[in-house]
Fold these 2 entries.
Entry 1:
Amino acid sequence: AQRVTQPEKLLSVFKGAPVELKCNYSYSGSPELFWYVQYSRQRLQLLLRHISRESIKGFTADLNKGETSFHLKKPFAQEEDSAMYYCALTGNQFYFGTGTSLTVIP
Amino acid sequence: GAGVSQSPSNKVTEKGKDVELRCDPISGHTALYWYRQSLGQGLEFLIYFQGNSAPDKSGLPSDRFSAERTGGSVSTLTIQRTQQEDSAVYLCASSLDRVSQPQHFGDGTRLSIL
């Protein structure tokens, strides 16, 4: 069973527009959820995790247990946000989504 | 350097050959993870180590895949009798402790099976 679903492979938004990258998960119990990001020619790195409830680079993500979602949001997209974003879940194992490639158009 | 180091960065080999991929985690990180990333796919979890022990090996795709970790540090992922479907980027990550800590990734090894 697929644990983490990112429905959008590609997402394009204009600079200054709001952006939302969707993530839905399937897991019984209490998983921990993360967003990882990979900028061009850089390593995959942690962006944020739900237990921290923090905002990183203007991004936030709220865990919605009722909808089993962990969508990543930013009110005003910047060009430097263009990257590949992966939603991830940690339970007994580690599950990553297939990723969403975000392009911010100047 | 202070990051996770993987070698080789690229490996091209013929079908049927064995390959070894190496991962040097961040010093002091007790947890180490292996993932596989195939074209158009997400990251597929393979195995993780806590110290030298691998509590769960069920992510390994077949018995041709094995991994070990010695001295709580370097890990080797071995693929025997490689097949073309093994072609992928193999990523290693490490974390300080516990499975819920953020993972720090290496650059990966791009494996191509001819």
Entry 2:
Amino acid sequence: AQTVTQSQPEMSVQEAETVTLSCTYDTSESNYYLFWYKQPPSRQMILVIRQEAYKQQNATENRFSVNFQKAAKSFSLKISDSQLGDTAMYFCAFMKPGEGNDMRFGAGTRLTVKP
Amino acid sequence: DSGVTQTPKHLITATGQRVTLRCSPRSGDLSVYWYQQSLDQGLQFLIQYYNGEERAKGNILERFSAQQFPDLHSELNLSSLELGDSALYFCASSGGAGAVGNQPQHFGDGTRLSIL
């Protein structure tokens, strides 16, 4: 079974600085998909970024980028130029390929951006 | 707006009761997923339907059941409710026609269930 581990329950960062959230996973699959979701105080689940395991290039979405290390089974999220609106819970998620597979989520990291 | 609609937004009921949560997926999405998020915890996968058929099952209690209808909306039924069932229940959808299985899931705003 796939497991996803987020070892940092809480983190904080000063506005405009950079922060990295860690995620590791365990799988025997060679192809899979990884995601970061953001859950602000409104409790909505918002997709931040996705990575396909067969792609070596790290995904980037504006201020958000990932460091995907397949051999180490590591998938960290870097947030650059942190903004107050980035304050949220961040969940790392793993999904096997194939139509209709569920995602396995980590326990989350609560990020606070301080002014 | 994710395009996934969940109703109701809030539900308050008593122990032993039965409730139904409803989800309308994004237009064109064939897969619907249900998740439970207890207070300050991660999301636990409950069950997934694809085009009307059950496709995957997670940690779903026997007191809980779900179905997906021909119009692709889904309902999650929770019965014999207990205090510990109080949680935020999310529905997500993915997989429009022609998708190859790598589509991210888009979440509704959730239904907050409170058991008194």
